[in-house]
Design brief:
The chain is 23% helix and 35% strand. The chain is α/β, with parallel strands linked by helices and 128 residues long. The chain has a single domain, classed as 2,3-Dihydroxybiphenyl 1,2-Dioxygenase, domain 1 (Roll). The longest helix has 11 residues, at 16-26.
Length: 128
């Protein structure tokens, strides 16, 4: 897949290696490139997640007053069987930061990466 076909998201992280381990071990991402403690590029389908440590240009470009405020933004990963995925991740020792919530669009639950960045696991509601 060409880089122009990817949706890229940058997460600032405390520990690049821990973030790479979390996303590749538990959420099906693959490591595309690593620059040690500064930066890594992990991908899942059309999602390119740039995990950036304090030494990265992405982190240095972020003003301290903005970096200190956690947003409610998150990446959104879709699953066909969310309950099984929740069980698998729970058995792996991961802790969810929300309960499973159901609505007209489907079901979702939130997980936090080692730096506290949110990941939404989602299953779409059946369509008529």
């Amino acid at each position: 897949m060409a880089d122009s076909e990817l949706a890229s998201v940058r997460y600032l992280v405390d520990d690049v290696e821990a973030a790479v381990e979390f996303y590749t071990t538990h959420l099906g991402f693959t490591l595309e490139m690593s620059a040690g403690a500064a930066f890594a590029d992990v991908r899942r389908g059309a999602l390119r997640l740039l995990v950036s440590g304090a030494a990265s240009s992405g982190a240095r470009a972020t003003p301290p007053d903005v970096a200190a405020v956690a947003g409610r933004n998150r990446i959104h990963l879709q699953y066909d069987d969310l309950v099984s995925e929740i069980e698998r991740l729970g058995e792996a020792g991961l802790t969810f930061v929300s309960d499973l919530v159901s609505g007209p669009g489907g079901q979702q639950i939130l997980l936090a990466d080692p730096s506290g960045n949110l990941v939404e696991l989602f299953q779409q509601a059946p369509r008529d």
